[in-house]
Amino acid sequence: MPVKVLSWNVHGGREGLDRVVSKLRSSGANVLMLQETGRALGTRIASEFPGWFTVRTGDLMILSQEKLAGQEVVKLGPGRSCLVTRTGRLTFDRCPLQYLRWIS
Prior knowledge:
By secondary structure, the chain is α+β, with helices and mostly antiparallel strands.
């Protein structure tokens, strides 16, 4: 099965939960890598995707239709981190783009 990934900064859901969830579903992605979810919004998003596997840290979140194998949090500096997880085939990381140079 091909993997379709969506990476999106949801900006704390300022568009509203229904609109965020609608966009996530209509993307057709089977891996969702989200930034700025916050605790409450992240919990609500996860509840809208029952059966999906989820890893989270702070305001970073990865959801996948395929089972995720653990998670690793890479600290990038004060208040900044990167979330890394794996499926049986691929490794995913959700990092703010401006911080990728720190870990490459």
